[in-house]
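Let us work through a complete example step by step.
Step 1: write down the sequence.
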Amino acid sequence: MFKIFTALTIFAFVPHIAAATEQLVDVHIHYSHDAWDMLPPDDAVKVLRAAGLNKAFVSSSSDDGTQMLYEAAPDLIVPVLRPYRRRGELGTWFRDETVIDMLEKRLETNTYAGIGEFHIFGEDANLPVMRRVVELADQHKIFLHAHSDAEAIEFLFAQNPDARILWAHSGFDAPEKVGRMLAKYPNLTADLAFRSDQANNGQVDVEWRQLFLEFPERIMLGTDTYTPERWYFVEDNANWTREWLKDLPPEVAVKIARENAIALSNWALKK
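Step 2: predict the structure and record it as tokens.
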């Protein structure tokens, strides 16, 4: 009887595990100008759908790339406004006041769920351009997607404790430090883009598992197509992610797989 019950119990959980990992949301996709010729919008959408993505948060240098994908697949694309007009502005945008004019005009014209992904580190987070970006996000009730160290995240929340910040790459910090930041800031979430230390051979790392179980509603998935070549990795990354998600409790896996990202998107887009 015990063996039968155990088998039935395991069988009952299988559909839940499959459902948890079938559809994913990727919150860290770029479709920048150097990818447009290689991968036209319709082809880019095919890549995202082939990966089994329910939604893809897209930002681009320039924003025209995001708008092209959003026009091609409004059901799939969650538009995020990047403050870069071309590659090469990563280290200068936060000292360029013309960026603000561009952001303000785009925010007036189009629909966005967030501002980012932008790069800002340390005390540069207190510069006037960055401060205005924080104000714009608050004004439009959208999130900030920050590629930052922990110090910059601290400064951003000091400017607006009610800001919602998606921490790109989880700051490339160890899970213990990510956990301390999540515990300190209730409105902080983190993506796993361009990280592979959370799992190996389908098994979740012990420290990452502890983080996922402690903060199941604060972690999201990402690929980061920061170069055109990274688009070839979107489907592989999704499949690899599905494998390690199966090593988590189904109710945790489904949150990380898509529910957390959908909740953030719905909040920002007021759906």
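Step 3: interpret the result. The chain has a mean pLDDT of 93.
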